[in-house]
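Human: I hope this is not a bother. Would you mind checking the protein record under this note? Thank you for your patience.
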Amino acid sequence: MPTSMPVLTIGRISRIKKRHYRERCAERIAEIVSDIKNYLCTDRIFIP
C-alpha cells in the first residue's frame, strides 16, 4: 500500500492576502484531505 503523502503548493502566494483566494485554497485542501487515498504517491499538487 502506498504511503507517501503529496506536497501541497500554493499556486500564487502573492494572492494569499485575498480572502476569496484563501477560501479557495482551503476548499481544495479539504477536498484532498477527504479523499487522500487517491492522492497518495502524488509528487506535487498545486492549489487552488
The chain has one domain: 7-47.
